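Progress report, Aim 2. The chain analyzed during this reporting quarter is listed below.
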Amino acid sequence: MESGEKNTLGLKELLGEVRETLESGFREQVWVHAEISELKNHPSGHCYLTLTESEPGGGIAARAQAIIWASRYRLLKPYFESETGQSLAVGMTVLVRAQVQYSELYSLSLLVTDIDPSFTVGEQERIRRATIARLEKEGMMDMNPSLTLPRLPRRFAVISAETAAGYRDFMRHLHENEYGFRYHTELFPALMQGSDAPQSIIAAMDSVARRSDEFDALLILRGGGGAMDLVCFDDYDLAVNVAQFPLPVLTGIGHDHDYHIVDMVAYTNVKTPTALADYIVDIFAQEDFNLESLATRLRLAVRGKAASQLARFDALTLRLRSAASSRLSDALATLDRMELRVAAADPVKILSKGWAMALKDGHRITSAADIKEGDEIVLLLGEGRAEAKITKTSK
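Predicted structure tokens for the chain:
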């Protein structure tokens, strides 16, 4: 090299040395944990990924391209899904085994040969526990349950995916109930899985909140799925919105064994959408039973009261009959006595005993002063009459 001549490298030569240095430093495959920020399934069967790691404050600290060749992806994909219940997706944190490789044309990339599904599940559980602890510290767990659900709620805002089987099952069970109870439901559609689901559900909740006076409660429905399908219901922001919602929030999410943070902060939760429909119908069925029981008790009470009053009426009738009979007997006895007295005072009987009654001008003579000498009188006797003329009177 002549004096003053610079030592230069061609770009290819420089990148070649970088490649040799990297390949010599990373001869063995390494396990790397990162978040999937981009994912593309190529028609050829290859899977292209962009892996990132975030700063504590939220910025991107590192980014790298990765690829899973089709021959490996055909094995890794079903294995990962069977273990986690979820497909690889944007926003998921994964632990991958990769070979570091460098190309002068395509720069640094990671050739993924294995994925540890237990890390993804474990990482999600760690985040979940941290979220629960934060909500408990902030007093969010008892906020929505402190609201009052109407005794007979019948106006419901429903957040679900319109085409979801769980939503259709819920609607059928609720509106076709065996008792014929009638309800009003209005759907507010939202995404119910994936990284965008929490914000989509929150947006639907905001729409309901603006009309909260039109509803008795908010229902959040999501049918069954894998564990990672339902991870959106462990989201902190979504849980806070449920906790602070102005209406009681009732959830029916997943399978019998699923229990999410949104369930914890809601007014009440049941295991499935159909179970939530049954829960609502049971409220009315129980009230109907209570009313029927009360009606039966009232009927029995009325019958008992009527029987008691009838018994009193019968007793009073007997007393009245007895009293009337007694008074009638007394009256008959009095009448008999009066008849005897009348009979005893009968003038005919008196005259038949030898007495006579004197009449002057048709009037009975009761005193000597009523007649004088020369008066003509009539004497009534027991078996006839006689006419006489007064010849003399004396005191």
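The radius of gyration is 56 Å. The CA atoms of residues 98 and 112 lie 4 Å apart. These observations will guide the mutagenesis work planned for the next reporting period.
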